[in-house]
Give the backbone structure.
Amino acid sequence: MIELEDLTKRYGDKLAVDGLSFTVRPGTVTGFLGPNGAGKSTTMRMVLGLDAPTRGDVRIEGKHYGELREPLNSIGALLEAKGVHGGRRAYDHLLCLAQSNGIPERRVGEVLEMVGLQEVARKRPKGFSLGMGQRLGIAAALLGDPRILMFDEPVNGLDPEGIHWIRNLMQQLAREGRTVFVSSHLMSEMAQTAEHLVVIGQGKLLADTSMSQFIAENSRTHVRVRTPEPERMRDVLVEAGLRPVTGGDGALEVDGGEAPRIGELAAANGVVLHELSTQRASLEEAFMRLTAQSVEYHAYAPGADGTQLPQTPPGAAPPPGGAAPPPQPGQAPPAWGEDWKRGR
Ligand SMILES: Nc1ncnc2c1ncn2[C@@H]1O[C@H](COP(=O)(O)OP(=O)(O)OP(=O)(O)O)[C@@H](O)[C@H]1O
């Protein structure tokens, strides 16, 4: 278990982490999400004692990281995959870690096999691909067979086979009753991996909830109805107290309606249906909607007339104070691809 209590980190006048309190529990994969610069890495560094909190506290199984006698046996972490001595062989790198934590040498071979690096065990990591570096970092995290695992963007640089492998690994570790805390930018990946979510924005806690509840609370679920008689169907729905709207392709979309009831209404009124489906938003849509107000950096896409348009996620509310300001007449638009810091 990892417990955060009012955890806060200030760098100069930048509040990177702002009073975070939550608990990461064993037996489940907990996803840690937030837009760029939200404070995820800073939080993870404080868990590992690599950064001192300005205020508040974080404990691993009730102890501060610095109080753990052999930390690798309690918590394994992958933060910076390139944080490896490039000239020391993969095997030797792991052996050094093992010896400093009282872990027997045979475990080095075991973890190299677990991550599929046994063939390159005697090679130096400076020649490794990003994906191989990630695997070596994961091997180091697994070395002490810890009860808690923490991964910062573990699928970075992994190919589809590698992504599939790490997803299964994390779920397996959670099934064994371990605490698994993982950050990722890949929403589709997170949706398949995590059961619980902690979402932060600008250092603050935005959500601490189950994946299904998060999606249900932050997204729009609607029923899509396609029929050759849209006008008649619309009348039937309105008469039943529903409020259909016409989507881009002419299909009717009914918020708050239930597919079985709508199907029965169509049948009772003899309306032919070509499609009746419940549309659930993805984790990505839910995430964009929740975090739209706390995104620190907004990119601009050029509009058809050459003006710059903010990229607003579908259905997302504008951030407080409005979206990042579009260029005013006479003001040079930002260069293509340039991030605009909101409020600048
Ligand atoms: N050592 C530091 N000195 C000053 N500011 C820092 C330092 N480390 C992080 N920050 C700032 O703190 C904020 C949080 O950064 P952090 O890297 O924790 O965010 P993140 O959620 O991990 O972002 P990303 O998803 O882009 O990796 C950012 O505004 C960042 O610029």
